[in-house]
Write the structure tokens for this entry.
Amino acid sequence: MRERLIAGIALAVAVAALLVASLSAQAPAGDAKGKGKGGAAKGGNVGLYQRQPPTPTGPAPKLADGTPDLSGVWLGGGASDADISRSLKPGDSVVMLPWAEALVKTRQSKDDPESNCLPSGIPRGSPYPWRIAQTPGIYFIVFEGNIHSWRQIFMDGRKHPEDPELAWYGNSIGRWDGQTWVIDTIGFKDKFWFDYVGHPHTEKLHTTERYTRTDMGNLSIEVTIDDPGAYAKPFTTVGRARIMAGTELLEYICQEDNFDLQHISGPAQGPGGATR
Amino acid sequence: MRVIVSVLTAGLGILALGLPVMAHHSGAAVFDNTKKIDLTGVVTKVEWVNPHAHFYIDVKDAAGKVTNWNLELASPSILVRNGWKRNSVKEGDMVTVTGSRARDNSNFGIAQTIVFPDGHKLNFLSAFEDGK
């Protein structure tokens, strides 16, 4: 009887642990929330990473010229990589045009560009950290995964080209709106999926990203997605990232040996198997 | 009871509906959580590669027939941040692996826990036995 009671308690704790893990998987990509009372501010789990040092505290830093300093290694992203509709600003909704709705229902996991070691696009995140590097006139976002890639954001006041060369990450120009870094991007190829469930986009996609370092350790991210080719109205996602104080970017060459692609089957689905 | 304890260990932050949070594809699109594996054998090869490290073990059945299994881990970058070394599992090691089998029923699975004869454990993401 006593053993059954202990087993029952153990099972309850296991279920609770699974629930915590499940909820964490539904949070924005690589969500930087720590686990347990006090969260990661005391160190501990950050996304998939354990025993991480405490998040630095204090006010958001600035560069010598007063510009907000966003440089550093971050973990997190602008939207859930499982299903972008889980990350919407309150009151927003994702309304696909009929062709897009039909397409999502037929998409297969094996065809997800991400599974094929192709770029994740915007604002799809990943469990891997990334770095912002600010240089005069041009900022870079350097991704560890998925995939080992980079974006360049022109900060010299230029406009978009009239007919930009289409690209997976589009053509990005940036500016400061007070303490918020705003990136405007057009000129996308229609290739990447917004998430594992397969939300599509077209070459008409126009994204507006807003990054605000709210304090030393945290970055709020809002991304407005305007694609009249696939969606009935624009929508905005809300996400966040946290500084990864104890790590540098490591190499992640997804194309090295993507052996399990041949084993992927079934409809496009999130980490827990949920489909659209 | 032993089974429940192993579930507890595995449940600490690495599972989503029974399968680990994968890095670049849905775990459920590759592995079937209802097809549990519990394999003991000798490591024949370790591939410390992206997007997933993996290793092979020879498993001998009661009739003496040997089957080689391919067992998947997270990426090296995730593993090393969580205490793994590239030689944490090496050729010749005897290991017991529990996890889930591929949906396509091939001899391929996800190594959710790896237990060595001296009792120390590793998991799909981490070398920290307490999962913290």
Summary: Residues 2-11 of chain B form the longest helix (10 residues). Chain B has two helices and eight strands.
